[in-house]
Amino acid sequence: MTHRTAIITGSTSGIGLGIARAFAAAGYNVVLNGLGDAAAIEEVRAALAAETGAEVVYDQADMSNPEAIAAMVAAAVTRFGAVDVLVNNAGIQFVAPIEEFPPARWDLILQINLSAAFHATQHALPGMKARGFGRIINIASAHALVASPFKSAYVAAKHGIAGLTKTVALEAAEHGVTVNAVCPGYVMTPLVQKQIPEQAAARGISEEAVIRDVLLAAQPTRRFVTVEEVAALTLFLAGEQAGSITGAIIPIDGGWTAH
Fold first, then answer.
1. What is the set of active-site residues?
2. Is residue 170 included in any domain, yes or no?
3. Cβ atoms of 16 and 9 closer than 8 Å
4. How far is Cα 54 from Cα 50, in angstroms, rounded to an integer?
5. Mean pLDDT score of the chain, rounded to an integer?
6. Is the predicted pLDDT of residue 22 greater than 90, yes or no?
7. How far is Cα 247 from Cα 254, in angstroms, rounded to an integer?
8. Which CATH number is 29's domain given?
9. Does the pLDDT at position 187 exceed 70?
10. Stretch (H or E) spanning 6
11. Angle, CA 146 vertex, CA 141 and CA 152 arms, to 5°
12. The pTM is what?
């Protein structure tokens, strides 16, 4: 068990919540963050704390707002004394051909999927370096390594996350801080569920065909990656035994990027 503190952005549902659950079960103090109904989020927070015995708090910081991100990190330090692990997981998606892609959607996806990780890292890293320990884990995507049509903003942001990961890993390497990116393939989360009808419309095919011929066709295992698998890898990277893993872009994609 540990009493270290982890901030996990975008953790009120999906992959982020699964990661939060794994960290709380391992004894971390956990800062949840994300969007949703306030009462529903409080129910999730309270249940997670009761299930694990961990201290779990919620910060409503808007990941498109640099000042809110800075305040979230500062609040965690004030409450817990330090931020030991930062998991940059917040993300949104929009699917459309580039000539139809709304510029405002491009801007927002880049803000939340890429710039938010930059701002959170910039504020969390100095304390980690000062203490000689820290873990920054960026939840990227197989789309940090390969592309798919109709996802120009998302793919650009995730490729950017890969570059950010490598750069900060080099800057932090002599300070006991590791920086890695986890790259899941398709996980059946609300984000993926939402894009199934969007993909169907963009490609002119049925939703069943999107699942069979687009999503799972990319993964030789022919199954969705599970939230629990992503959470377990993230938790391992946060531990002492992962101290020599840094600057790594790690696929967990059912063999997708082995093609």
1. 154
2. yes
3. yes
4. 8
5. 96
6. yes
7. 21
8. 3.40.50.720
9. yes
10. strand 5-8
11. 80
12. 0.94
Dmax of the chain from CA atoms? 54
**Residue 159 maps to a domain:** yes
Instruction: Please write the tens of the pLDDT for every residue from 128-143.
Output: 999 999 999 999 999 9
Answer whether residue 202 is part of any domain: no
Distance CA 127, CA 85 (A): 11
**Domain containing residue 180:** 5-185+226-252
Cα(169)–Cα(192) distance, rounded to whole angstroms?
29
Contact at 8 Å (CB) between 116 and 16?
Answer: no
Cβ proximity of 145 and 166 under 8 Å: no
- Coil, helix or strand for 190? helix
Cα 246 off chain centre by = 17
Could you tell me if residue 235 is inside a domain?
yes
Say whether pLDDT at 191 is over 90: no
Beta strand pairing call for 5-8 and 29-33: parallel
Closest to 41 (Cα-Cα) out of 22, 23, 59: 59
Q: How far apart are CA 194 and CA 20, in angstroms?
A: 22
Token reading at 3: 């009493």
